[in-house]
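Data deposition worksheet. Section B asks for the primary sequence of the deposited chain exactly as it was used as input, without tags or linkers unless they were present during the calculation. Section C holds the resulting structure in token form. Section D is free text for depositor observations; keep each observation to a single sentence. Incomplete worksheets are returned to the depositor.
Section A, Depositor: J.P.
Section B:
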Amino acid sequence: MKNLILLIYPALWLGATFYHARIVKRGGVDPSFLDKDQTRMIQAFSCIGVVLHHLTQQITSYGIYNKGPITVLNYMGFLFTALFFFFSGFGLMTSLQTKPDYLKSFLYRRLPSVLIPFWTVNVLGVILNTAGYGAHRTAAQILSEIFGITLINSNGWFIVEIVILYLLFWLIFRLIPNRDVALALLCIATVLLIRYSFFQGHDVPGNKVHWFRGEWWFNSTIAFPVGLLTARFRKRLAGSSRAHLTLLLILFLVLAAVTFAISVRFVNRYGYYTDAASSHAIRNAAVTLASQMAACCAFIGFIVLLNSKVILDSPVMRYVGGISRELFLIHGYFVNRIFAQVRMKDFTRFAVVLALSFACTAVLSPCIRYLTARIVSGLSALAANLAKSKARRERIAREMGKIPRPHRAIRLKAFLPAMVLCILAACILIPVGKDLIARTQFREEWEAIRQAETGSEVLWGRFKTDPSGLGRQRLGWIVIAKDKEKVCLVTREGIDAGCYYQKHQSVSWEESDLRKRLNSEAFLNTFSKYEKQKLLLVEDDYVTLLTVKQAMEAFPSQAERVLCVTPEAVRRGANADPVTHHSVWYGKGYCYSWWWLRGEKNQKSVTAPIVDLEGNVLTDRKAVNKPDGAIRPVLWIDVS
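Section C:
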């Protein structure tokens, strides 16, 4: 019974959607079918669906716990997002066909309408994290989060992707005069974006950017070209479907239900959490994607046909449609941040999050819309002044007998979109090239590690080891333990330098700054996304140090424990003794240092164990705040 009461929320949602709706007479299609007012209300329906979906994900732990009939919303988020993509594509193509010179004003009218709300809500997120939760951010991190380079609000992925699709739309249609050819190219570009995102996998340890990551980046994107094509052939589709509208509506209802059920089955059985080295995993993810794309298309077909029979006229949904973009962004803070760890009943959680999300959006949305309108107005005025200046220069040139060359004007007109297209292509092709290299290197490294014996040297990741070299160098490791499922690696050299803990006080390894540093996002970016997927979490650490016992077992002799450090580690402050091992070091570019070991679990001390320059293991020699100890990371790799 306590789960059934949750159905009040979807009931209110559907009731608000179809309030005052009217059914079109048999054999007819209302002129308002899929007009701006209707599409806005359908988007409002989708937005509330997304909010309910996220709340359901939270109370069911992504479908693990059954909360009754409402659990189905856990799996429906991609369908609601598909409607956003569909109407974005539909709106772009419809505007292009009906508005003269639409592309000329596209950038300064269309982009601010999505970017200003996005950036404004990101500012609120930064304030919430810093003032509300005491998070420390550098100026660069704050700017990155505000402008969406790093997504402080995970729901912002949609804005990033839709802006990319907007830019592709503008560039392709500016450069290609034939609209059907341009439409075909845009559809191909969208499919390529889906393919690229598909191979980026899920968020992995250390990655908080969310660009091109996760199935949300591609499982509903197919709806964008479907929207473009629907708008392009709208009259033809409407004419051919009018005679059999009821039959088609029933057919698409059945198709939507069946494909959705299949997609849920495939998500639970296969899913997207793939192993980069497994061809079966890629195949399983592709099957899952195909099922969800089919469900998106069937669901969109059903909604479009339903709107041709049922015309919405709900004042509630008309209002929500005007604030849906802000609601989509703002509700994530209440769901995932403010109330995520607050214990309350499920019914209360829905009520509190929905009420506060709508209230906050209702207050902020007018301010955001005003700011957006002012910015668009200013940009429009600037564009108008530039156009007047250009016209005046051309008039003066004609009066002076200097007739502008049309072909030159055409070249200049095409230069900006061509330049932007080249930059956008570089932004896509360079990561694609890097990804291909990373994937190839990963497969080579992983196979080498699987074949390696204890004591062998292998490569894994990239780290700055040579201060005079460009970029980061491939990092060498020694295999110190191995079984059928995992391999333990320790770096061949000391690759960095620093203190165990910044203050001179008793501290355990679990509390140390060095542990936080090794498991930070910055350090984990030493590894590609493919390498990160193979890192094993051992005692809550992806990267750690050797204990005293492990150091003695891995390097039994004193000579074996003597550590060479990289030139970059020396530059960063590693103790480099020019006397010790002088005969080996001199003239060979080697340099030696003492290095940190890990203290015993939950044991606090003002000193930390080390291996000194002679290879002796010392447990109480170095204070934890000594800044010049070499760092020799350790990690475990999954080779099962």
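Section D:
The chain is about 55% helix and 10% strand.
The longest helix spans residues 346-399.
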